[in-house]
Write a structure and sequence with these properties.
496 residues; alpha/beta; Aldehyde Dehydrogenase, Chain A, domain 1; globular
Amino acid sequence: MSDKVYKNFINGQWVASKSGQTFENRNPANKDEVVGVFQKSNQDDVNDAVTAAAEAYKTWRLVPAPKRGEILYRVANRLFAEKERLSQEMTREMGKIIAETRGDTQEAIDMTYYMAGEGRRLFGQTTPSELGNKFCMTMRQPLGVCGFITPWNFPMAIPSWKSMPALICGNTVVIKPATDTPLSVVNMVKVMDEEGIPPGVINMVTGSGGAVGQPIINDPRTRVISFTGSTEVGRKVSEGCAPTFKHACLEMGGKNVQIVMDDADLELAVDGALWGAFGTTGQRCTATSRLICHKDVVGKVISMLAKRAAALKVGNGLDESVQMGPAVNEGQLNTVLEYVEIGKKDGARLVTGGERLTGGDYDKGFFVQPTIFADVTQSMRIWKEEIFGPVLSIGSFSTFEEAIEMANDTPYGLSASIYTQNVNYAYAAMRDVYTGIFYVNAPTIGAETHLPFGGTKETGNGHREAATACLDVFSEWKSVYVDFSGTFQRAQIDNQ
């Protein structure tokens, strides 16, 4: 591949799109910098990729799982060795600060090592039969071709969450990276190719959701679709999978809450809210977008947070001193600014921020101030709707029971946290806040790869990513009965 021009990866080869068209990807912190030129692919490219994956599946599924794991282990070693380069390129294409992209790359490393180890596990069960001289067990079997549609906010971590478990189970992959961040997936796929993943086992096609994502969903040869993105698009993915009953794993929106009780360590709670709300410029599905505080401490928390948020250094994420990067693109920036106006119109009190940053280098990127609204009530749109930007809405409560009701007052159910020194409150909140992820005395962000990741309600459709739970997405259970009695035995009928 020539410098800054990147091709699709199909059947072990880097190939140009049959459309003959490309698109530019630019640094959101500096629009003058072209990160790369990528293929603007079409349905023909997807067809080639799925064909390659379907053919490769015939042999890849028969490779012993420990051998598949050995390849992934080598991939993890390479990602680790090239972590700094990969992280810097990720910051250039996505904007989040270098400390965070190092964490993103590390997640991919962790997931790859983790799934490499699963090559020697992939455990099933053995269980006694109700009949004599009969053996019962369960085993996993792969599904076939997996189609992945991945987001821009974690451009290597989330593709690894999907790809590594799919591969260790014996599936093959066609992946469409987000159009804002294709380079990180190019880098991951290049490492996988160089470390011995056979041709056709991993395929990557860049382009738009309509031109590339939809054909992946529609192709009858893809047997599972894993999507991370908005609830609106996820609903369409689910509908697209339904006619052929293909598996759909959907990881979608969030409107995550941090509860601060009156007995909380307020310095710790403010640290958590600041990181949860403004880490990744608020562009996380797990970002803290609602903060609810006990009425006796809400004023102090607002004052402390406003001072800290206003002092955050915003800029190019490659500068080690910068604490918050840009919005990923102009559309996302405009969405944030629109919600600021909505918040004002609905009667919320703007405490700090709310403006686009301009002047000097800011004019080259999509920068916005960290923004805090106070006096936010449950009827307001900024309480209810996912903004996906650095906007924190603060409300208050009088009782623990009211806090739980407010926390659950959302169509989403991804992540939540509580800050308290009261173990009774902590355990009751753990039980009663209806989310897939919950933290005590920690922010709503910070998931680890060896625990299941996913949400309830309109955040997901019941599946989980990461940990061993994700293996259920990429494999089918098979129950096996071995009768060594030499006689004809009928379960239930002959066991009365």
